[in-house]
Amino acid sequence: MPSPLAPDAGRPAGDSPNPAGPEGDSGFGARPLEQTRAAAAAMRRLTGLLLALEHPHAAVDDMLARFVEWERELTAAGPSDSSPRIGADVSNAQRIYLDHAFDIGSYNPCVPEYRFDRLDAERADGRINFPLSYEGPPGLVHGGFLALFFDCVVQHQSCAVGLAGKTRSLELTYRRPTPLLTELRFDIERVVGDRVIESTARLTLDETVLCSCVVSAVGSPPNALAGSQHARRRTN
Known about the structure:
The protein is built from three helices and eight strands. The strands form two sheets. Strands 3-4-6-7-8-5 form a six-stranded antiparallel β-sheet, covered by helices on one side. Strands 1-2 form a two-stranded parallel sheet. The termini are far apart. It is α+β, with helices and mostly antiparallel strands and about 240 residues long. The radius of gyration is 19 Å and the shape is flat. The chain has helices at about 35-50, 60-75, 145-160; strands at about 80-85, 95, 115-120, 125-130, 165-175, 185-190, 195-205, 210-220.
């Protein structure tokens, strides 16, 4: 099985496009813990291994028994209120809101990881390799995960260059089946109009377009987005 992407998979070659605030966050949410990133990568790898098992295995029984204890310990350590600490009227009982502008897959195993090789205001391109956990038809990526992927990379680009916004529409066109466990390329062309950002993205294998997507968003400065109002990480 191909190796997963590196922990900084969403970042382009060279400097990170994620503008860090005074406490190390991007301005769109708190930076995930390194433990969270490492756990997400491990859970994604384990999911692929579990999906490929054909018979029960003693290691899975052991894992399930440990899950019970881990869940109990983490529940005791976590917040009592699962709503995010966003805005002026917040409580320490609420959970921290993590950065959802950049590299979501680096800390959330439900979201695919990708890597930018180029990122500027008009164009961006990069690569992605979908692991087994994103399978739909045999050996192929589920179409819903493709929509999620396009929404993530388009918003990542817009947030990195300083003008993002709420998605108004996302139109996805499937052209060819998208294979799992294969390095694929993506590219984005971004046009900013009168308060509207339109991004046209493609996913390709060699020179073949597998699917394309047009995303329309309302352009807003980063400080107008809800995530910018997140509360800082508690110190105790």
